[in-house]
Prior knowledge:
This protein is an all-alpha fold. Helix content is about 60%, strand content about 0%.
Amino acid sequence: MSLPRTVTSGPELHSPEGAAKKLQTPPVRGTWRASSEGTPSTHREDSWPGLGTLRRAFSRTSQQASGQAPEEDVGLFQRSSRFLFRSLRRAQDDGSPAHQPQATAVPGVMTQGPEVPSRVMDGGRRQSSAGVGREELEPEAGKSVADLITERRLLPAFEQLRQLEVRLVAEKASHTFEEDPTGFARRAMDVCLHYDGLAAEIGAIVRETLGPDAEAEGASGLAQLLAELGHLVRSDLHKVRREVQPAYSAAGLPAWEAYLRAFHGAVAQRLQELAQDARGCEQLYVLLDWAANVYGSPDFLGAPDLTLSTEPLPPLLAPALWARLQSDYTSFLETKITSCFDSILQLEQSRWADAKAPDVLQGLYHTPLSVDVHMLVAEHVKAAGAISAELEATTLCICTRALSLFLPRFEKAFLESKAVNEPHLGANINACEELRTHLLTRFPGTFEELEKPLVAATCTFQKRLLQGLQCDVQPLFRVLCTKAWLTQDVLQPIMDKVVAFARHLEHVAPLRAQETLQEVHRYVVREYLAQVLSPRERFRGEERMTGSQKMGLDSQAIGDTFQGLGSEATWLDQAIPCVADILGETYKDDIRRHLETLIGSYPDIRRDHVLAILALRRLGRRRNQRLLQHAQYLLRAAAEAGGSGAAGGHVLFEEIEVPTSMDLLITCI
């Protein structure tokens, strides 16, 4: 079917309805091509579509290390730069087109399979992720890097981007960012995202050169059809305004309003026909976006003195049809977003299989997980918000549900992989922390239900981090409270492993690193006391005094080490010295005072623990009974004052098990 003709002057124009009927555009057959644009805009119908992205491989090239500058600086860009430069040279030599117009955008349309943002979804014009912070790249000759990429002036875009990269690395080396530790990360992310956009545009040119792709073509084909429809409406109405209206205005006939309503009715009819055949998330979005943001734009006609109507026109799509299209779109979107999270998980699994350590960005272990999720959520929410507030809210709910289901799957898959080590665990803790803080900040009132699964995942990774250390040092505690312990420094190997472990915590988000360090501190003190209360050898006389002194020295070494590492768990400092004082006290009546200090500092201590401590001294049955009765009185008073066990949520003795036959042992002394 031939394309509709434009309105001409003459007898045909006496019927506006007849002129409007010429807007019947050819039906869409087969598949439609995909657009690479991810967000809605006005007047996009006059341009040709980009064709997706070159997938995550292009993004990865901007995140590898360079040989000259520091790894965490130039490594973000260097490989991407070399690849893109070769691609640009080939594109320039082959005479690749500098300008290709774009059609109506489709959020997240891609050329094959489900897409994810940043590394997988379209990167053509994506700027920055939630929470990363966007800094505008400096324009050259009035054009920004994004504008140059959009206009497919790729070589100037690459040259300008390369200059920004070199300047950023130089500023980093000169300590410009010491007072703004996140400034480098934000600007580096902007540069990386623009490299991704450049790579995506090169991929689009390559695919256009090779020919149309059969997948995902439907959305861009529909977008192109609507672009042609919009062009015809504008050109015909411009001609009506120039040639027809003057002829009728002299006679007082409202020609402009008549033609305008006729064309509006014809467009509405054609759009309803297209809506019947629309399939899939991308096609439905194209229709909704064109109706809401292109045709519904006040400057749709392209001239400041022309508007669609001074009086309200009937809805372009009937309310029932509009509601159905939105409902169908959200149904497809839910499946699509779930598929995107599946792809994110697959990409993470491929990274784990590579057995490479995670990158270090601004001093922290980094995984692209949080950036991917931010981009996925932000892109679809922004696209939905361009249609309606209701659709935006629905999309937020869909993303929240999908992410809450994704987190346990991600956690399980990682713990079952061979990549469970300190750097990867630290990177995952950082990713969860970024998601928890940034999503709640950017979308307040929406993602609160994600707080619980994100905190749960973080705790799981922290516990697994601690388990690795515990497996290493647990055998070393068995040497404590032995005859060899009295004459050798058996604590130092334990503390050496603790210090080595703490070096990894330097690359973990500060709040989570402090929590983990305090848990390590508590673990060391708890295991030390567990060995003291269940000794393999019992000391008497001089050996007991030596053991008491040894415990005091060990307590000082433990406290100094963790203080140097930055632990804020000062409440642990009194535990070992109190037991050491009871063990070495020469004036037996003062043991009562030491017990009072111990119970007052650690109200989670139990009767069995007191019995085990008293058994170390062999004080005699009567004295032990008096001390035990006094201890029970103190424990009851502490329970009544504090309600239960540990004060301030601190738990130490409650997790220490002692022999159950201690009562019999005390009775037999």
